[in-house]
Hints:
Elements: E1 20-23, E2 26-28, E3 48-51, E4 54-57, H1 58-65, E5 82-85, E6 88-91, E7 110-113, E8 116-119, H2 120-123
Antiparallel strand pairs: 1-2, 3-4, 5-6, 7-8
Amino acid sequence: RPGLALCAGCGGRIQDPFLLRVSPDLEWHVACLKCAECGQPLDETCTCFLRDGKAYCKRDYSRLFGIKCAQCRAAFSSSDLVMRARDHVYHLECFRCAACGRQLLPGDQFCLRERDLLCRADHGPPPDGAAAR
Protein backbone atom coordinates (compact mmCIF):
# COMPACT_ATOMS: atom_id res chain seq x y z
CA ARG A 1 0.00 0.00 0.00
CA PRO A 2 2.81 2.50 -0.59
CA GLY A 3 1.38 5.97 -1.20
CA LEU A 4 -1.78 5.32 0.87
CA ALA A 5 -0.36 4.79 4.32
CA LEU A 6 0.37 7.55 6.85
CA CYS A 7 3.49 7.28 8.97
CA ALA A 8 2.74 6.91 12.70
CA GLY A 9 6.08 8.61 13.43
CA CYS A 10 6.01 11.79 11.33
CA GLY A 11 2.41 11.80 10.08
CA GLY A 12 3.50 12.05 6.43
CA ARG A 13 2.35 9.84 3.57
CA ILE A 14 4.47 6.77 2.99
CA GLN A 15 5.45 6.72 -0.68
CA ASP A 16 8.62 4.67 -0.15
CA PRO A 17 8.82 1.22 -1.73
CA PHE A 18 9.12 -0.22 1.81
CA LEU A 19 7.31 0.52 5.04
CA LEU A 20 7.38 -1.00 8.51
CA ARG A 21 4.09 -2.27 9.91
CA VAL A 22 4.26 -2.89 13.64
CA SER A 23 0.61 -3.58 14.30
CA PRO A 24 -2.36 -3.94 11.96
CA ASP A 25 -3.07 -0.20 11.95
CA LEU A 26 0.33 1.44 12.60
CA GLU A 27 2.87 1.90 9.82
CA TRP A 28 6.13 3.87 9.68
CA HIS A 29 8.68 5.09 7.19
CA VAL A 30 11.73 2.89 7.67
CA ALA A 31 13.67 5.95 8.92
CA CYS A 32 10.90 7.07 11.33
CA LEU A 33 10.52 3.90 13.42
CA LYS A 34 12.64 4.78 16.45
CA CYS A 35 12.37 4.26 20.18
CA ALA A 36 10.25 7.11 21.60
CA GLU A 37 12.59 7.28 24.62
CA CYS A 38 16.18 6.86 23.38
CA GLY A 39 15.83 7.30 19.60
CA GLN A 40 17.38 3.91 18.72
CA PRO A 41 16.28 2.84 15.22
CA LEU A 42 13.83 -0.08 15.42
CA ASP A 43 14.05 -2.29 12.37
CA GLU A 44 13.66 -5.97 11.59
CA THR A 45 16.78 -6.73 13.69
CA CYS A 46 15.49 -5.10 16.90
CA THR A 47 12.56 -6.07 19.11
CA CYS A 48 9.90 -3.37 19.14
CA PHE A 49 7.26 -2.77 21.84
CA LEU A 50 4.19 -0.54 21.47
CA ARG A 51 2.41 1.43 24.18
CA ASP A 52 -0.17 4.16 23.53
CA GLY A 53 0.81 4.39 19.86
CA LYS A 54 4.52 4.90 20.64
CA ALA A 55 7.29 2.44 19.83
CA TYR A 56 10.01 1.53 22.35
CA CYS A 57 13.14 -0.60 22.35
CA LYS A 58 13.10 -3.55 24.74
CA ARG A 59 15.37 -1.87 27.32
CA ASP A 60 13.31 1.32 27.58
CA TYR A 61 9.96 -0.48 27.53
CA SER A 62 11.11 -2.68 30.40
CA ARG A 63 12.50 0.26 32.34
CA LEU A 64 9.39 2.42 31.88
CA PHE A 65 6.53 -0.08 32.00
CA GLY A 66 7.87 -3.40 33.30
CA ILE A 67 7.20 -4.82 36.75
CA LYS A 68 9.88 -3.73 39.18
CA CYS A 69 11.19 -5.30 42.36
CA ALA A 70 9.40 -3.88 45.41
CA GLN A 71 12.75 -3.71 47.27
CA CYS A 72 15.44 -2.52 44.82
CA ARG A 73 13.06 -1.03 42.18
CA ALA A 74 15.07 -2.66 39.34
CA ALA A 75 13.27 -4.33 36.44
CA PHE A 76 13.18 -8.10 36.08
CA SER A 77 14.78 -10.01 33.24
CA SER A 78 12.95 -12.92 31.66
CA SER A 79 15.27 -15.40 33.42
CA ASP A 80 14.83 -13.97 36.96
CA LEU A 81 13.20 -16.12 39.61
CA VAL A 82 10.90 -14.07 41.81
CA MET A 83 9.10 -14.17 45.13
CA ARG A 84 5.65 -12.64 45.61
CA ALA A 85 3.95 -11.22 48.67
CA ARG A 86 0.44 -9.95 48.02
CA ASP A 87 0.79 -7.74 44.94
CA HIS A 88 4.53 -7.08 45.47
CA VAL A 89 7.19 -8.92 43.46
CA TYR A 90 10.83 -9.31 44.59
CA HIS A 91 14.10 -10.66 43.22
CA LEU A 92 15.09 -13.74 45.22
CA GLU A 93 18.06 -11.88 46.73
CA CYS A 94 15.85 -8.90 47.66
CA PHE A 95 13.29 -11.04 49.52
CA ARG A 96 14.79 -10.32 52.96
CA CYS A 97 13.64 -9.31 56.41
CA ALA A 98 13.81 -5.52 56.73
CA ALA A 99 14.86 -5.79 60.40
CA CYS A 100 17.58 -8.47 60.43
CA GLY A 101 18.43 -8.86 56.72
CA ARG A 102 17.88 -12.63 56.69
CA GLN A 103 16.88 -13.95 53.26
CA LEU A 104 13.36 -15.37 53.35
CA LEU A 105 12.92 -18.71 51.61
CA PRO A 106 9.82 -20.48 50.27
CA GLY A 107 7.85 -21.80 53.25
CA ASP A 108 9.22 -19.21 55.70
CA GLN A 109 6.61 -17.34 57.70
CA PHE A 110 6.74 -13.58 57.33
CA CYS A 111 4.70 -10.43 57.69
CA LEU A 112 4.37 -7.67 55.13
CA ARG A 113 3.99 -4.17 56.59
CA GLU A 114 3.52 -1.73 53.72
CA ARG A 115 6.67 -2.60 51.70
CA ASP A 116 8.68 -4.05 54.59
CA LEU A 117 9.03 -7.81 54.90
CA LEU A 118 9.57 -9.06 58.44
CA CYS A 119 10.58 -12.60 59.39
CA ARG A 120 8.62 -14.36 62.12
CA ALA A 121 11.38 -13.74 64.69
CA ASP A 122 11.23 -9.98 64.12
CA HIS A 123 7.46 -9.77 63.83
CA GLY A 124 6.26 -12.45 66.22
CA PRO A 125 3.21 -14.62 65.60
CA PRO A 126 0.55 -13.21 63.26
CA PRO A 127 -2.29 -11.46 65.13
CA ASP A 128 -4.91 -14.06 64.19
CA GLY A 129 -2.61 -17.03 64.88
CA ALA A 130 -2.47 -17.98 61.18
CA ALA A 131 0.81 -18.08 59.30
CA ALA A 132 1.37 -15.27 56.81
CA ARG A 133 2.55 -16.58 53.49
